[in-house]
Amino acid sequence: MGCPNANAAFAGLIGHSIREMRARCVLQLAGDKARYVFLPFEGWLVVSKVDPDGARQIVDFVLPGDAFDPASARAAIAAADVAALDHVRLAVIPRDGWHRYLAAHHAAWALFSRQTAAGYSRMAERMLRLGKSSAETRIAYAMCELCLRVNPFGLVAGRAFRLPLTQQVLGEYVGLSSVHVNRTIRAMARAGVLDYRGQIEVMIHDLPALAAMAQIDPEELKIAIIPSPE
């Protein structure tokens, strides 16, 4: 985390908090006390809300290297559910210890602040498209966002991006049924824009066309949603 003292403090912080979680294991329920901050090293976490009828809306994904505090503004009550999307190795850090660590190490606090700001930016871009855009635009944007997050150097045509998402999970992220997601992705594949290989890989073939569908400039989106190291 930037200097020997900070690195030693970080190692001490996570030393007894490493966990292995199976896919779909629930780490936090909305409305419960938010006692922990989650920091995955391998695998993805999914942050979601469930409506009274049981329908799930995915709010965000927490990827390796991201630190996620699920607390809301209301007395450290969790704002959302947090679960393992796939097999996850992570640190489950008590919130009070995490806050003491950030208070003592400015570089770590600054990095966490940049990660939080990037999350707000992602949410703003995604909410705009959820509210106003077609299925094609929603899915194209999600592909651009997620591919950028797994490859922060940029979107590249002809490169496979690993996204551990079923079409149902992708639908819960973009507010569409899995049938609608399947139909839209097939149309994009027929148009030569991308291939979606099961729940493992996305291959972008025509980046300008994908960016136009998503209504984004790839470089501007990268600057907005990928936090700089320092």
What can you tell me about this protein's structure?
This protein is of the alpha+beta class and 230 residues long. The protein has two domains: 4-104, Jelly Rolls, CATH 2.60.120; 130-225, Jelly Rolls (Sandwich), CATH 2.60.120.10. Helices cover 44% and strands 21% of the residues. The protein has helices spanning 4-14, 95-104, 106-132, 135-150, 167-174, 178-190, 207-214, 218-225; strands spanning 18-21, 26-28, 36-42, 45-50, 56-62, 81-84, 88-94, 160-162, 194-197, 201-204. β9 (194-197) and β10 form a beta hairpin.
Key attributes of the depicted protein:
alpha+beta; 3-stranded antiparallel β-sheet; Jelly Rolls; 230 residues; 2 domains; 21% strand
State the CATH architecture of the largest domain. Answer: Sandwich
CATH superfamily descriptor of the largest domain:
Jelly Rolls
Radius of gyration: 18 Å
Major sheet description: 4 strands, antiparallel
- The succession of helices and strands, N to C, reads HEEEEEEEHHHEHHEEHH
Oligomer state equals single chain
Counted by DSSP, the helix tally is 8
Spatially, the strands of the biggest sheet line up as 2-6-4-5
Give the termini distance in whole angstroms.
10 Å
Q: Give unreliable regions as ranges.
A: none
Task: Look at the structure and give the CATH class of the largest domain.
Answer: Mainly Beta
> Average pLDDT across residues?
92
CATH topology of the largest domain: Jelly Rolls
The tally of structural domains comes to 2
Proportion of strand residues = 15-25%
Give the helix proportion (percent range): 40-55%
Number of strands: 10
Q: Which geometry do the CA atoms define?
A: globular
Which structural class best describes the helix and strand composition? Answer: alpha+beta
